[in-house]
Amino acid sequence: MNILTTSQLTKTYGTGDAQVHALNDVSIEIEAGEFIAIVGSSGSGKSTLLNMLGGLDTPDSGSVSVRGKDLSQLNNEELTVFRRRNIGFVFQNYNLVPILSAYENMTLPLKLDGVAVDEPYVERVTKKLAIHEKLDQLPGNLSGGQQQRVAIARALLTKPAIILADEPTGNLDSKNSLEVVSLLKSSAYEFHQTIAIVTHNEEIAQMADRMIRIEDGKVC
Ligand SMILES: Nc1ncnc2c1ncn2[C@@H]1O[C@H](COP(=O)(O)OP(=O)(O)O)[C@@H](O)[C@H]1O
Ligand SMILES: [Mg+2]
Predict the structure, then answer these.
(1) Distances (CA, A) of 146 to 128, 130, 203
(2) How does pLDDT run across 36-75, given as a tens digit for each residue?
(3) Which of 47, 65, 145, 217 has the most CB atoms lying inside 10 A of its own CB?
(4) What is the pLDDT of residue 46?
(5) pLDDT at 135
(6) What is the rounded radius of gyration, in angstroms, for the C-alpha atoms of the chain?
(7) Any atom of ligand 1 within 6 Å of the Cβ of 149
(8) Is 188 a residue whose pLDDT tops 90?
(9) What pLDDT is recorded for position 118?
């Protein structure tokens, strides 16, 4: 079953000589439960694509559907709610709130949505990610790898349709990078999540079920 599809996405930035076709006729399908790596050289359009998949940016033409919902049919408010319930984001810089504990950070999207926290699930996820003993710590007291694992827990806890991770290991050393991605991958299987990760790292890309390669805004 496809959990996410795009049809003929295009996005152009700038005009005249400065024009860049960041995405050019991109049609992809991602099946439920897949662990996908999006690869390509710097400037090839990976972040632009991921932002469209998550409804953070809108295409000039073409469409994105997540769980059968065409994102272009939603107004801003509906999109914000849809995103919170269906898309988990993991960013290179973790994006944790510095004055909230690890536990408060990872449960924040549920609180914003007025959803009760499934404590046994928090325990399973945080044990899996080996951060269960760090729940009361502020992000500033955690290592980069631990902060990213908190961000991954935050993404997993909403049980989204898909988790989108843009260079999630960009600020980590190679040992921590492989550990974080291994945990992300095994969490995906254990908790039946679908994950698309943008990476430059060939070793990480090789861990994926499938690679989507883009160059000059085109899938190749
Ligand atoms: N907001 C923007 N304004 C102008 N150009 C942009 C913008 N965002 C991305 N681009 C251009 O679009 C192309 C694709 O960018 P991006 O998706 O960030 O690539 P990647 O993530 O693969 O490095 C690049 O040439 C980049 O300079
Ligand atoms: Mg990028």
Answers:
(1) 12, 8, 21
(2) 999 999 999 999 999 999 999 999 999 999 999 999 999 9
(3) 217
(4) 96
(5) 98
(6) 17
(7) no
(8) no
(9) 96
How is 18-32 classified by DSSP, letter by letter? G-EEEEEEE--EEET
Residue 43 Cβ < 6 Å to ligand 1: yes
- Find the length of the chain: 220
Residues with CB under 5 Å of ion ligand 2 are 47
> Would you state the pLDDT for residue 200?
84
CA–centroid distance, residue 198 to ligand 1 (Å): 14
Residue 45, ligand 1, Cβ within 6 A: yes
CATH class of 34-60+74-219: alpha beta
* Helix, strand, or coil (residue 189): helix
Contacts of 66 (CB under 8 A, 6+ apart): 3, 4, 53, 55, 82, 86, 87, 161, 162
The rounded Å distance from CA 49 to ligand 1 centre is 10
Q: Please name the helix (run of DSSP H) or strand (run of DSSP E) that holds residue 79, with its range, or none.
A: helix 76-86
Return the ligand 1 atom nearest residue 45 CA: 17
Split at pLDDT 50, 70, 90, the class of 167 is very high
**Which long-range contacts link 53-57 to residues 24+ away (Cβ below 8 Å)?**
53/4, 53/6, 53/87, 53/162, 53/164, 53/196, 54/83, 54/87, 54/89, 54/164, 55/79, 55/82, 55/83, 55/87, 56/83, 56/89, 57/11
The full set of domain ranges for the chain reads: 34-60+74-219
